[in-house]
Amino acid sequence: xxxxxxxxxxxxxxxxxxxxxxxxxxxxxxxxxxxxxxxxxxxxxxxxxxxxxxxxxxxxxxxxx
Amino acid sequence: xxxxxxxxxxxxxxxxxxxxxxxxxxxxxxxxxxxxxxxxxxxxxxxxxxxxxxxxxxxxxxxxxxxxxxxxxxxxxxxxxxxxxxxxxxxxxxxxxxxxxxxxxxxxxxxxxxxxxxxxxxxxxxxxxxxxxxxxxxxxxxxxxxxxxxxxxxxxxxxxxxxxxxxxxxxxxxxxxxxxxxxxxxxxxxxxxxxxxxxxxxxxxxxxxxxxxxxxxxxxxxxxxxxxxxxxxxxxxxxxxxxxxxxxxxxxxxxxxxxxxxxxxxxxxxxxxxxxxxxxxxxxxxxxxxxxxxxxxxxxxxxxxxxxxxxxxxxxxxxxxxxxxxxxxxxxxxxxxxxxxxxxxxxxxxxxxxxxxxxxxxxxxxxxxxxxxxxxxxxxxxxxxxxxxxxxxxxxxxxxxxxxxxxxxxxxxxxxxxxxxxxxxxxxxxxxxxxxxxxxxxxxxxxxxxxxxxxxxxxxxxxxxxxxxxxxxxxxxxxxxxxxxxxxxxxxxxxxxxxxxxxxxxxxxxxx
Lengths: 65, 512
Fold this sequence. Notes:
The complex is a heterodimer of chains A (65) and B (512).
Chain A: H1 20-32, E1 38-41, E2 48-52, E3 55-56
Antiparallel strand pairs in A: 1-2, 2-3
Chain B: H1 2-12, E1 31-37, H2 43-54, E2 58-60, E3 66-72, H3 76-80, E4 87-95, H4 104-117, H5 121-138, H6 148-151, E5 242-250, H7 258-273, E6 276-277, E7 284-291, E8 294-300, H8 321-330, E9 338-341, H9 348-356, E10 361-366, H10 369-385, E11 399-403, E12 418-422, H11 432-449, E13 456-461, H12 464-472, E14 478-488, E15 491-500
Parallel strand pairs in B: 5-6, 5-7, 9-10, 9-12, 10-11, 12-13
Antiparallel strand pairs in B: 1-3, 1-4, 2-3, 4-8, 7-8, 13-15, 14-15
Helix pairs in contact in B: 1-2, 4-7, 8-9, 11-12
Protein name (chain B): THUM3 protein
Subcellular location (chain B): Cytoplasm
Keywords (chain B): Cytoplasm, Methyltransferase, RNA-binding, Transferase, tRNA processing
């Protein structure tokens, strides 16, 4: 639901619920991978949000809000 | 969850008084009536948990914040794992309608005489059993217990570290620990429960992170520095037990103070058992709870409150986990629900959530970098605790932390099932004026992210006026459900259950 860029396909296939390898990869990314340092990128605007020590900072600047 | 609570209530709230179980006959199993203190207002929730996990029905006493239930003694470990209880004690005897003599001396003499008539045997066996459970845990703790004594004090300002600690008087309830100290004579006093375990180590990591259980926390005196309670208490001659009596008294018709009651009762206990009285390093804590004509004599089974169990890194307004648990339970979380705390502080609620409802996904956020850091540290402590010793990998926890702004949440519209949070009170953090602006904005944004129709929110706040006003303008988004009146750190607060209406929120998020 949050959207997270990864080596998954850009969109889930129509019948993804039955596709077990796909589900495993999604599960892995969602629940087993922890990004400690990095970036979250908004798929629409491209705006990047830093991740530091596992915590993304998604505060907007004055202009953005 | 209302239905569940009602069922438990119906099953549990028995009008007839329940006497203490008869002493175990030969070969019969040892059973106990356990009294548990719970956050006031959440008695039904606690009763539901007891029913669910122990299969026992509970009675809720008129002395608020307490429930009673019967369990076999072998069920004690499960009792300690209850998430909605602060403190536990084994009931020696309950009197539903004790007639106090009007004359003070007579009333106190009656209390004295009562001691030798009480059925102490089985409760003491339960206490012993409980002790041996505690010892198994303490052995694994390598923590330094030096600050123990000060934890018992009413105002342990001295133990606080960190510049952002507020005044201790605003902190959560500390116990009245002296035998029978009571603030006002004759007034209907709201009694605080148990010993608040304030972890004074603000920034330090706990060595041993078994935080799930009161017994893991620093023991008040048993078994540490003074050897009280150490060793073989089952073998009576080995040593003389130390005890103290704690009396809580409420009601305006008593001719005596709790101090006096404790003293007289304590004197008789000392006489009867030949124990030694010791205020700070006691083995046995005898409880004398007097609420109008309801008298309960018990023996404490917990020394420090269970409610701080998940938190090793405190902030100035950390919510106790029993309250967090109660709030979460009110939402009736279902597997796969997305649960968000958008003002998580040090993470008490999401941590409790992820622990008890692991098949839900929990997201916590706060705008304050300190809070977020502490919350992350608390989660790390939890992860370490879950570490698999052999493989040294730890099972993940379905919980993530983000630094964000409550008014601009990076979450899709209608994607969150449950919102649970402790809203700023404006007393310890922020200000009342800020709340006037903040509350409507919060409710709006929370309304946006919450799933229409099935979504719900449980919000704790002390600023009830401001909340009511903000809510009055949001009738198209939020429908008010149950309200639970609670006491948080001496402040009268309310927990509001809100249901999200079917109306979809407008897509005003142009940025996201």
